[in-house]
Amino acid sequence: MFRFEEPAYLYLLLVLPFLAAFYLYSNYRRRKSICKFGDPELIAQLMPDVSKYRPDVKFWLVFVAIGLFAVLLARPQFGSKLETVKRQGVEVMIALDISNSMLAQDVQPSRLEKAKRLVAQLVDKMQNDKVGMIVFAGDAFTQLPITSDYISAKMFLESIDPSLISKQGTAIGAAINLATRSFTPQEGVGRAIIVITDGENHEGGAVEAAKAATEKGIQVNVLGVGMPDGAPIPMEGTNDYRRDRDGNVIVTRLNEEMCQEIAKAGNGIYVRVDNTNSAQKAISQEINKMAKADVETQVYTEFNEQFQAVAWIILLLLLVEMLVLERKNPLFRNIHLFSNKK
Fold it and tell me: For residues 137, 216, 285 and 270, what is the CA-based torsion angle, rounded to 10 degrees?
């Protein structure tokens, strides 16, 4: 299999026809000028050391060298092969709460933004693991199926905001159940669910869902975002806060007791997310403790660089061009390599 690493440089080859045309036109003008002075055959006899073909040979040697130089810049490569690579890792499903209460700013810059940054840091620490993402509020749906494509995971993460789900609430149980069904069927691999939530307006069923996940060998960890003292929920586009029917400002508080209960039922850990990176470090350590199984994937090896051979050819062409003189060499007067003389 053959390819060019930098194919844009091949556009330099488009210059070569213009260069050749310019040289042929110059030769034509030169012959026309010689004809003005007299008969070309007579003039050739008067200049026996002038070669008719050597300048052409020198030009075409440089011409080919320039073309190969464009190929050299494009970095020709070939020689790839398909091989099976074994990697060890775990599978992690992240269930992220995107209810309106996650907009509270008792954790800076907000609960949701802090949670998204934590997930991004967690993904950055992964190597051979697989990660998937679920968002939930009053309902839950898969934002990213489980994958080892960390770049896509971070791209999907950036687009998450409360507007993705119109139904408000905190359906942690639905999120855990969906995450449990989202893992691959591979056996022997460690699996974990990470629920990131403030736990407010809990709709029930979360503890039962965590126990059901544990029975299938899945660990359920909970990261609680926010402060027990609570904070108001900003209204986007205004300087005001969300209010209840009586006009009172709504204060949302972290429900640590409920988060701890879910983590206990899921045989996992509970960590409060504050304005430090301690939560990310704690959950990363917990994932590293899990059993890592071999995951077989087929990948292409790197292509072999072939620019060295092209560089040697260019060097040889330029060396020959330097050795070929425009005038006939007196030592080889009787050798008519570049002449039609018999």
Answer: 50
